[in-house]
């Protein structure tokens, strides 16, 4: 089937993606590699298409994650089972999705972010590059090159919704000398001029569905590149750098006899340019007529569609576990709610109410609502990789075991084979419970543990015991039970329980935590109390002060310490004259606006060095050098805390002795700073950090005692 026909079928709603198809995954470099093969007319692999009817599966359009409206679809359609990544890439490369200036922003928001581009092919060669378009002498004899010779001529211009001053941006709206906004052909000529100056032919106007009589943009650009090059060649002839006969005899073999005839010479120049323009335009337009091999399955194979899809692993993006589970879930037939992925996204976008038990100890205004998407569970209209893993693990456990039957749990049940053994009934029936538990767990991370984003959990598998317990409404609504979960989290994180074998540890913790919290059994985590910030080779003082030559501080410990500080709602480091601000994870996640100097700005956290690096820098050791030395004392996690970006700008140039006087005394609260400070910090870095270690360790252990009850 011609590429043009595939595009037209997609635009008409006849070629669609079944709802169980994975998301678009190809990065721009992968798209570029595909394009280099396609423009050199090398095979790009076959497509697998299944004949069907619209009631067979919910569907989505190429390049977009959202489901197609059922009523607006064609009754008979072709489901693309294999080839989404390739055809979606080519569709956005050769089509102008942003043609309508009134709706381009809406399209930009809905499309996969890796496809928000405009692609070009450069004409003028640089340095020793192959002259692929015969630009030097305007002599194009066809496109017979290898992808490696062409790939550097392909340029991807990423579209940003705010950068409308860029000439390739869909929102570009230049003005003329009379301050009138350019529109229509005048705008097209202006863009063509700028593209020609950069020697870039736009590819996004090559596919012309309706064969409009209107001249497409790429032909305007080719024309302008030709005009500019002819003037350059004429100048080179006048300067004696090139021979006119060498340039023009290809279009007029008798040109040497007519050199004194200005009309003949002018016609020859015109013919040279016209032929080059025609051949280049013809080559680009004929790209749409390249045929793509199709394997087309008849409609009586519809019952095997999922099995066929599951077994596709060659010639496309390898199927991951989540892709296969989404496909399995579609076995139950058409669903008005869409694919499993679409159902998960809808639920993650919903808002839940937070109960008093969760927020009882919060200072100041308490959060009463929570949205999982605020924690980056969905990025660029796609479910995040972290959330997919969490969902699959909990789904497998709740599908294979009745809730509360924890004795038989084994690590095998969160491995790929066990997950893929799930039946579609189990997937669809248990998904609502799994999502409810995970959303509650995320709310717990956000309100109790100082975690602002899903991918900032020190150990991702630690969410599994939390989510498992929060399936139970009684636990979710009980303050004491939630406190025990928090006890387990801090003790395990700072006591080194997850320093190795996280898979088996999380399964073990589901059992022990459930028995302690739900059944009021023994606290099997008490042994971790004395290991908190004291685990040899993991979190003890020598490690944190970079004195252990054999071990480095783990990122999980450093991040956990910052998040513990944030969970205490510390006051920001603010000047005396400004209103106090308590920092917390939920305000960061929701992008809260705060007032500063009569201006509203979004609240952001900065990972702040309490003793600034500049305070220790000298001629031999620059701030940059200190920052790059991970084992430098001042890069210890004991020298870090979260403050607002505004505060960081105000105090970053001050020494710690000065800014600790500059900020309010009360603003030191929550940061675990030493209270007895009878020494000069700038001259006693290590002593200050040792004091902070003691203060932090003391506060964590005091909190554990309170949480245990």
State the share of residues found in helices, binned by percent. 40-55%
What Rg is obtained from the alpha carbons, in whole angstroms? 32 Å
Strand content: 5-15%
Principal-axis shape:
globular
Helix-strand category? alpha+beta
- N-end to C-end Cα span: 70 Å
Q: Please list the strands of the largest sheet in the order they lie side by side.
A: 3-1-4-2-8
Low-confidence stretches: none
Instruction: Give the overall pLDDT as a whole number.
Output: 89
**Main sheet characteristics:** 5 strands, mixed
What does this structure look like?
- The chain has 709 residues and is an alpha+beta fold.
- The chain is 42% helix and 9% strand.
- It is built from 28 helices and 16 strands.
- It has a five-stranded mixed beta sheet with strand order 3-1-4-2-8. A three-stranded antiparallel beta sheet has the order 6-5-7.
- Helix 14 crosses helix 17 (463-469), helix 17 packs parallel to helix 20 (502-517) and helix 19 runs antiparallel to helix 28.
- It is globular and about 105 Å long.
- The mean pLDDT is 89.
Q: What are the salient characteristics of this protein?
A:
709 residues, alpha+beta, five-stranded mixed sheet, 28 helices, 42% helix
Question: Which helices and strands, and how do they pair?
Answer:
Blueprint: H1 3-11, E1 15-18, H2 28-39, E2 47-53, E3 59-60, E4 76-82, H3 84-94, H4 104-110, E5 117-122, H5 147-150, E6 154-158, H6 184-197, E7 200-202, H7 217-238, H8 244-248, H9 262-286, E8 294-297, H10 305-310, H11 321-329, H12 340-349, E9 351-353, H13 356-359, E10 369-371, E11 378-379, E12 382-383, H14 385-400, H15 416-420, H16 424-448, H17 463-469, H18 473-476, H19 479-495, H20 502-517, H21 541-544, H22 555-567, H23 585-590, E13 593-596, E14 599-602, E15 605-609, H24 613-616, H25 623-628, E16 640-644, H26 645-651, H27 656-662, H28 685-708
